[in-house]
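Field reference: sequence -> structure
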Amino acid sequence: MPGIFTVSLDLELYWGVRDARSLQDYERNLRGEREAIRGMLGLFEEHGIHATWATLGFLFFKNVEELRQHLPDVLPDYRHGPLSSYRYIEDHAWGSDDHYHFAPEMIELIRQYEGQEIGTHTFSHYYCLEDGQTIESFRADLRAAVDAARAQGIPVASLVFPRNQGNPDYLPVLEELGIACYRGNESAPFYTPKNQREQNLLVRATRLIDAYVNLSGPNTYTLEECARTRPFNIPSSRFLRPYSHRLAPFEGLRMRRIKRAMEQAAAENRLFHLWWHPHNFGADIERNLACLREVLGYYGHLRRVHGMQSLNMGEIASVLETMHAA
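Structure field:
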């Protein structure tokens, strides 16, 4: 097969940052997120991009009252209580901010675009490596996510672990629930799945530097590597960081880092996997969409020169299933 360019997005609204950022502090990003999503969908349609939208199960509901009717029976008992989205449901003073927490109309919009897959980001933004949670509460949470999607006629084939906290002990649960693939992490030690306590300043700083300077390599993969075990690991290559005014002088380095890895994947028939959160684009929509437009334009160049193709995670998993069976 020719090289593959895949995109996955962690669609989570405020649930994805609520244990780290206040609603007031992050409101600008959240206020612009829907406009950013429409812009992304337009660019994906223009450039023929197939993407996976790893969608939090909570987002399928219209409001908190409807959500409360579908909570799982087993809840995670995190040692650090504020990590729990279920605790937040009870503690939050619900008012006129439902659009920062729920988005069934956006899920329906995404489904209308060709090549866009609705995957799962768990039900509650579940953290698989935090102290206190168990495989039983993970199973209950993920089953609730799958059920919420299936109630809308959406089969779930792909998973993205929140905060990239992939727990290998939990992978059999994906198979139980019919999930074919997940997004794993890059292989460098500073990308190894870590809980919140282990995400220290050195780890975060090294990842930031790696976005501009090649510390971890291109992080591209052969399909043979991805097809070795089920569920299939379709690892990340690069996080598309949002535009930063402070780091604007280094934008050329950031784009060059992405394009060189994409070119290697195209020339050597490998996989390149780009990901980000839609809310990352919400605070500076125009500049972030311009960056995305440049990346997708370069994909178009690689498609013409090397035959590179765009597949979402579910489509890749179908190819890997054939290889695995052989």
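Note: Residues 223 and 319 are 9 Å apart (CA to CA).
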